[in-house]
Amino acid sequence: MSNVVSKEVQLARRPEGMPKLEDFQVKEVDIAAPGDGEVLVRNIWMSVDPYMRGRMYDRESYVPPFQIGAPLEGGAIGQVIASNSDKAAVGDYVQSMLGWREYFVAKGEEVQKVDTSSGVPIQAFLGTLGMPGMTAYAGLLRIGELKDGETVFVSAASGAVGAIVCQIAKAKGCFVVGTAGSDEKCKWLEETAGIDKAINYKTCGDLTEAVRAAAPKGVDVYFENVGGEHLTAALENMRPMGRLAMCGMISQYNDTEPKPGPSNLIYMVGKSLKMQGFIVSNHFDLLPDFIRDMTKWIGEGKIKWEETVEDGIERAPNAFLNLFTGGNMGKMLVKVGPDKAI
Ligand SMILES: NC(=O)c1ccc[n+]([C@@H]2O[C@H](COP(=O)([O-])OP(=O)(O)OC[C@H]3O[C@@H](n4cnc5c(N)ncnc54)[C@H](OP(=O)(O)O)[C@@H]3O)[C@@H](O)[C@H]2O)c1
């Protein structure tokens, strides 16, 4: 044993519909001492992501389901506090998929060193400079085939992915319309992220008409994060030859019955639209381009972001639930340990 006791968040039972706090349990576990080739890491930040809801169903998908009584997994950044590996030394900051716990032991190959030299806050590697930023980049530029100066419509526009989509599009000289679930989020989108029109989808009335009023010439690229009424509104407003980049449909992740598709899918034909779903991990070949462009845009002040931080591993389930009620502004994170673990 390493004499380290770690709290971890486990799945207590599979959620039915909207997840509840009782679906999770926090347990203390003893952490083994690192063996040959292994590192002991104390996590500092962990990422909370909507896709984890899909892993709570007992079904095959592009990632295996979580098991009841086992810790959840997700992106995390921590510091190596003991090492028997030549891949990472004591004191190194490392990224892993072993979040939702305070400490862990893993093979050196299972963690990736984080380059802290740029001075960007380390947790940005879970957001703007990490998986959500990469999702925005690959989804908008490769799947959406964005061209400079086009009109872009983004749903969940103030979130971790959406806010970066909006600002990449602005950096490319596009006209950008986004939706969000509060006036405060809409104000941030227009005044800080610099988009052309933010729509509060909860108070705007007919969403199709609100998008039409915001983008009267129509939409060239729709970046889909929400599904349902948003997809119907997008299809209605697409211009001929438009592209729909299908990133996520959070409004349907807790559905207990399949929903009917949009009633206006027929526009795909008449407007010659292209709709393509994607999973970011299939586009990691773009990583060097993403890091180059994102670092440049951040340096030029073109990309801003917000974080919502819950404090302590026990708060991780609350953070997860808040994703489905709009309780986060920007990237949802949990601070699970001190900035310097050693
Ligand atoms: N394809 C991929 O590889 C990939 C990778 C990462 C993320 N994603 C997807 O990208 C989307 C955004 O993820 P994220 O990490 O950036 O999360 P996020 O946008 O930071 O957080 C989720 C947001 O979704 C909105 N929302 C929740 N329920 C909603 C509903 N019923 N109707 C409308 N809006 C709702 C809420 O904002 P409001 O206040 O605006 O309602 C909430 O803040 C998700 O669909 C996620 O699954 C896909």
TrEMBL record:
Concerning InterPro entries, the annotation shows: ADH-like_C, ADH_N_2, ER, GroES-like_sf, MDR_fam, NAD(P)-bd_dom_sf
Tell me which residues make up the Enoyl reductase (ER) domain: 17-334
Q: Does the keyword Metal-binding apply?
A: no
Superkingdom of the organism of origin:
Bacteria
Cited CDD domains: PGDH
One Gene Ontology term of the molecular function aspect: oxidoreductase activity, acting on the CH-CH group of donors, NAD or NADP as acceptor
Q: Any idea which UniProt keywords this protein has?
A: Oxidoreductase
Q: Name one Pfam family in it.
A: ADH_zinc_N
Keyword Ribosomal protein applies: no
PANTHER family in the record: PROSTAGLANDIN REDUCTASE, PROSTAGLANDIN REDUCTASE 1
The identity of this protein, by name, is Putative oxidoreductase YncB
Source organism (scientific name): Candidatus Phaeomarinibacter ectocarpi
